[in-house]
Write a structure and sequence with these properties.
Blueprint: H1 9-15, E1 19-23, E2 29-32, H2 34-43, H3 61-64, H4 66-74, E3 79-85, E4 89-99, E5 105-114, H5 116-132, E6 137-138, E7 144-150, H6 155-172, E8 176-183, H7 190-205, E9 209-213, H8 217-225, E10 234-235, H9 238-249
Parallel strand pairs: 7-8, 8-9, 9-10
Antiparallel strand pairs: 1-2, 1-5, 3-4, 4-5, 6-7
Length: 258
């Protein structure tokens, strides 16, 4: 009969394709399996460690931060959590108590699933979706485009918007960009107004005039209450905005008689 007791515990843990760390009652790391060693080899340089075995004997809080240590001290086990450290690595951790053969608490076992690449992929997809939801639409006047701005305005979205419209204007020779805020009902604060102004200024340096249309009451009220300056032509609707572009470019809408 197969006798599991004959197999060394550390051998079993090293065969598991999961990052496993064991800490004693003083939160000091006493065991790291082979899988975790490979992960810690990437993390070590962020705390001045070149050899992952140097993590042995160190407090788990040195690279996990204070939150996991609090979990060890107060948490209900088993406990799972999502953590990010060094603003670089993301992980799903599971922490549980360890007991010796006499039933006495003897330490902790941490299983650590590295999800950094998954989080990075999600972030890339998020940015791609943000780019997609800010289309640049050609208009009847070849040198003018419409940019519908929809949803909640954030600094990240406005940075992407600026990059997209500046690149488009450079390649297509835009002279007028109509920003339509009809789909934005949120208030606007100083940081958002600053980002918008940066986009306008950059376009202006390229010889492109910005035009705002569709400012909603909530947005207009916050602009006034915050004393924000919006130094661009502004119109109630897109129709009024495009008529302005027609006028300054010499175009005219004429009804064709049958």
């Amino acid at each position: 009969m197969f006798n599991l007791d004959e197999i060394e515990t550390h051998q079993l843990l090293n065969k598991i394709n999961e990052n496993i760390l064991i800490a004693n009652e003083d939160y000091k790391i006493v065991f790291i399996n082979n899988s975790a060693m490979k992960l810690l080899a990437k993390i070590g340089p962020y705390v001045g460690i070149t050899d992952p075995e140097e993590f042995l004997g160190r407090d788990v809080g040195e690279f996990h931060g204070s939150r996991p240590q609090k979990i060890l001290a107060e948490g209900n086990f088993p406990h799972s959590a999502s953590i990010t450290f060094f603003n670089k690595f993301s992980a799903e951790i599971m922490v549980d108590r360890l007991f010796n053969t006499e039933g006495t608490e003897s330490g902790f076992i941490l299983t650590w699933k590295d999800v950094t690449e998954f989080e990075e992929t999600l972030e890339e997809n998020r940015q791609q979706l943000q780019i997609i939801d800010m289309p640049v639409i050609p208009l009847s006047v070849d040198t003018a485009v419409l940019v519908p701005v929809m949803g909640k305005l954030t600094e990240d979205r406005l940075v992407l918007l600026g990059e997209k419209i500046l690149s488009h204007s450079a390649h297509q020779g835009n002279e007028y960009v109509i920003f339509d805020f009809t789909g934005v009902s949120d208030e606007i604060d100083a940081s958002i107004a600053f980002r918008l102004q940066q986009v306008i200024n950059a376009l202006k340096l390229m010889g492109v005039q910005s035009i705002y249309v569709g400012i909603r009451p909530e947005m207009a009220k916050s602009i006034v209450l915050n004393g924000l300056s919006v130094d661009v032509p502004m119109f109630n609707t897109f129709v009024h905005g495009i008529r302005y572009v027609w006028k300054v470019t010499g175009f005219e809408l004429v009804k064709i008689e049958e």
